[in-house]
Design brief:
By secondary structure, the chain is mostly helical. The protein is 57% helix and 5% strand. The longest helix has 23 residues. It starts with 10 loop residues before the first helix and ends with a helix.
Length: 385
């Protein structure tokens, strides 16, 4: 009975929580099994919701129940600049994407607060650049800084290993990398540079080779000091000069021009054969689509050949979705591995340092890491390796 008791909420807060979570009145009405007019009436202050309804919306919005009892909406950072090139969805994001942005912002704030406790700087140790700077030159410099020679790149057994190598280097420079799930059609990644630490978020729905390209593309935005959300694509020539700059930076970091030219000359008329593309993809951890695009842009294959071959190899979203379904059927990855994949070693180490120095409680640490107690020691052990 108590669950059906009506409670007083601020109409402005009720509306703000819905809008900032990406829900429409129609979707809320369907979730609560009520009418759209009933929801609009709450937002006009003409009626009050029940406690049961607020608990349901708390789960749907992934907000605390207490947030519904605020006297007024809380100030929140603006959403990243929309560089997704989707005119019909300009500044309109999927609920999961909005949640990923909110989660990244929340963790960004937590890192800042916890770093103060242990006297740790969150200021990025990279120099800002401009569009006038040569992205290819910068790509070469960062390859050298990250100790990523052609030989070293080929020695990584999987693209996951290369991703973690780059991630560790970025986090050493106080650029935190998170991996969250979002619809691929909505966003592949985003960068937050308006607060410290700077944050890069990569979409776990993507292939690993695509994530590598997005990682370096978003790092390009970090270097430019831009807070943006986008859909980096190694096979698309963007009309936006900022996106083109970041695409070039990422492409030349992962496959320098000189290396690409020497490889393509070596394989000659066998460039687009399955065995060649598979061998190059395996060695350099880049997608076949990116390899083909470089072949085309550097004049080694015609546009017709590029498009015909690309159609055979470009990852289909359906295949990615089927892969996700299989993972769920197998029970997913262990929670300790999932934690490290999502938030990375740097974040875990900051939480652990605060816990070791008694700045936070054991319960706080579990909450920040979103894990259960049985996984705590496993996460710490793996983060220290």
């Amino acid at each position: 009975m108590a669950r059906s008791v009506k409670v007083e909420v601020s109409p402005g807060v009720f509306c703000w929580l819905r809008e900032s979570s990406g829900w429409t009145p129609e979707e809320v009405a369907k979730r609560l099994k009520t009418s759209v007019e009933a929801i609009r009436a709450v937002e006009r202050g003409e009626r009050q919701p029940t406690l049961r309804q607020l608990k349901e919306l708390s789960k749907a919005y992934r907000r605390s129940l207490a947030s519904f009892f605020l006297s007024e909406p809380l100030p929140e950072p603006p959403l990243p600049k929309d560089y997704r090139m989707l005119p019909e969805r300009k500044d309109v994001f999927d609920k999961k994407t909005i949640y990923a942005i909110r989660k990244a912002r929340s963790l960004q704030k937590i890192i800042k607060e916890l770093s103060v406790n242990i006297k740790y700087s969150t200021t990025p140790t990279v120099e800002r650049v401009s569009l006038d700077d040569d992205p290819e030159r910068l790509a070469r410099e960062y390859r050298e800084l990250f100790n990523l020679s052609e030989k070293r790149q080929g020695e990584f057994k999987t693209p996951y290993k290369l991703f973690h190598h780059i991630r560790d280097n970025l986090e050493d420079m106080n650029i935190i990398v998170f991996q969250f799930s979002m619809p691929i059609k909505d966003a592949r990644g985003f960068a937050l540079t308006d607060r410290t630490p700077n944050i890069i978020v990569i979409n776990t729905k993507d292939t690993m080779e695509a994530r590598l390209f997005t990682l370096m593309h978003e790092f390009g935005h970090i270097l430019l000091g831009e807070t943006v959300i986008d859909i980096p694509d190694a096979t698309v020539r963007s009309h936006n000069k900022v996106e083109r700059w970041c695409d070039t930076f990422s492409s030349r970091f992962l496959l320098p021009r000189g290396l690409a030219v020497s490889l393509f000359k070596k394989y000659g008329n066998k460039l687009t054969e399955t065995q060649t593309l598979g061998s190059l993809k395996y060695r350099y951890k880049v997608s076949k689509a990116m390899l083909l695009y470089n072949m085309f842009r550097l004049g080694f294959i015609t546009q017709k050949k590029y498009e015909e071959t690309l159609d055979r190899y470009e990852p289909k979203e359906l295949e990615i979705e089927e892969s996700d379904k299989k993972k769920k059927q197998r029970g997913g990855i262990p929670q300790d591995k999932k934690c490290l994949s999502e938030v990375g070693n740097k974040f875990v180490s900051i939480v652990a340092n605060n816990y070791d120095n008694r700045h936070i409680t054991y319960a706080d640490a579990l909450t920040y890491l979103s894990i259960k107690s049985r996984n705590f020691e496993k996460v710490l052990a793996k983060a220290r390796k």
